[in-house]
Design brief:
Number of strands: 0
Number of helices: 5
Distance between the termini: 27 Å
Structural class: mainly alpha
Helix content: 55-70%
Length: about 110
């Protein structure tokens, strides 16, 4: 709720604590959800240090890339995610270097979990 009220920085401490707690009690799905919310706040710690390509992306970038990998156009992705095509383009622009790809067709060959 804190993140959704545009208090991203305040939300990070709560989300980090939630993620650690969920991992500690073995609730992997809840821990993954907390991690996704943490990435949505702009958290960048260890995103580039991991071998998991999906972890390098923000939650929104991951959604856009997964849809682009299926062959959907920016306009189709935008309609599905309730974004503008320009926003979809921006997310792809930011995701390509993180994934080490240069063309859209390479996305189909990447395992994003």
């Amino acid at each position: 709720m804190v993140r959704r009220n545009r208090r991203r920085t305040d939300a990070r401490a709560h989300l980090r604590a939630a993620q650690e707690t969920f991992r500690g009690i073995g609730a992997a799905q809840w821990a993954d959800r907390a991690a996704a919310e943490l990435r949505a706040t702009g958290e960048t710690l260890s995103r580039h240090d991991t071998d998991d390509l999906a972890a390098r992306l923000t939650a929104q970038e991951l959604q856009v890339v997964r849809l682009a990998a299926t062959g959907a156009t920016n306009k189709q992705i935008a309609a599905q995610l309730f974004l503008s095509p320009k926003t979809v383009s921006h997310h792809l622009y930011r995701a390509f270097p993180k994934l080490g790809v240069t063309v859209r067709t390479e996305l189909a060959h990447i395992d994003l979990g």
